[in-house]
Design a protein that fits this description.
Order of helices and strands: EHEEHEEE
Oligomer: single chain
Helix content: 10-25%
Strand content: 35-45%
CATH class: Alpha Beta
Radius of gyration: 13 Å
Number of strands: 6
C-alpha cells in the first residue's frame, strides 16, 4: 500500500491505523495523478500526465486493507493499482475523482507536509 498523506509516519491516521509499521520504501514516484490538499488532508486525482509524488510504501495484509478501505471510502476515495516504475512493482494507492472538491489547492511539490500528529 502506497500512502502520501495522513497515513504517513508521524501523521494522525498513521498513529491510529499503522502505528509500529515501517515503510519498506519512502521516496518519490512518477504516477498519473496530481496532488491537492485542503487544510486537513491531501488527495490524488487522475491526470493525463505523470507527476512526482512522495509516497511511503507499506506491506499490509487483507485485514489492514479492509480497515483502510473503511477509513477512506466515506470520503470518496478508492484503491487503484499503479505501477511504480522506480521500484519495478505495482502498489495500491487511494485516489479521488477529478476535479478535486472546492477548497482544495494544488500541491505542486507532490509532497504533502500537513500538520504532523504523533
Amino acid at each position: 500500500m502506497a500512502v502520501y498523506g495522513t497515513l504517513k509516519v508521524g501523521y494522525f491516521n498513521y498513529a491510529l491505523h499503522m502505528k509500529g509499521a515501517l515503510p519498506v520504501y519512502s521516496r518519490r514516484v512518477e504516477i498519473p495523478f496530481e496532488m491537492y490538499e485542503n487544510s486537513e488532508y491531501p488527495m490524488l486525482v487522475p491526470s493525463s500526465a505523470r507527476h512526482s509524488i512522495w509516497v511511503e510504501l507499506f506491506e499490509v495484509d487483507v485485514d489492514k486493507l479492509r480497515e483502510l478501505d473503511d477509513l477512506e471510502a466515506p470520503y470518496g476515495y478508492w484503491r487503484e493499482t499503479v505501477l511504480l516504475e522506480e521500484l519495478s512493482r505495482e502498489a495500491e494507492i487511494y485516489v479521488h475523482a477529478s476535479p478535486p472538491p472546492p477548497g482544495f489547492t494544488l500541491v505542486a511539490s507532490g509532497n504533502w507536509r500537513g500538520q504532523a500528529g504523533e
